[in-house]
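User: Quick sanity check before I run a bigger batch. Here is a single chain. Can you write out its predicted 3D structure?
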Amino acid sequence: MKTKSIAFLSILFLLILTSMSVAHDLWLERRGDLILLIHGHMDKADPYDPERVVSWILFDKKGHRLNINPIKGNGSVSFEDKAGRIGLINITFDNKYWVKTNEGWKNIGKREALKEGFQILESGRSMKFAKYLQGWHRTFAEPLHTEMEIIPLNNPFKSKTLKIKVLHKGKPLANVPIYLQASHEEKLKTDAQGLAEIELRKGLNIISSKTRVTTEGDPDADSIYLRASLSFIK
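Assistant: Done. Predicted structure follows.
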């Protein structure tokens, strides 16, 4: 009976996981002594495979690198920070292959979709990047050289607004949408230099953006779906 229950819960988790849309946001948020990686939207967070977190970079509040590994739980990832040493975290999340089919989105590549008889409407590899600020150092305004990132250009803890720059492989992303608080609603776009200015709120701020680039030589995807976030508690 116990074995059947475990099997049922495993199948249920996989169904929830594969029902996720590639459009879900990804951000970091402090709760108690933990900084949690959250996938979904403000009104609904979903579990995810912790192994999709493929790399992480941490700095203390003086801009020095920290050697802290994540805690990978059942459908979640977090970082313990009881002493409040962490100044910045940056996460790379490989959300794998997705295809849009005549039966909706599937978390598989083109070749597998074709084998299963689906009609493919579009396909892509989904990569997401989440950056969290818990303090300020001048180096936090510099690129970390991930494939996509949002850079804060001023100290958000001492300002009512935040200037940001959105980059793809180190180059400014012009005219890409900016979303706030993990919502579906586009609030503004970056200018020709990849810049935007955000009016900040008290409490948790989540700023995110996305873009799509074509890929060559990948038999399982025609595009790369990129999404980046910047979050902090003011």
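Helices lie at 2-18, 110-115.

User: Great, the batch can go ahead then.
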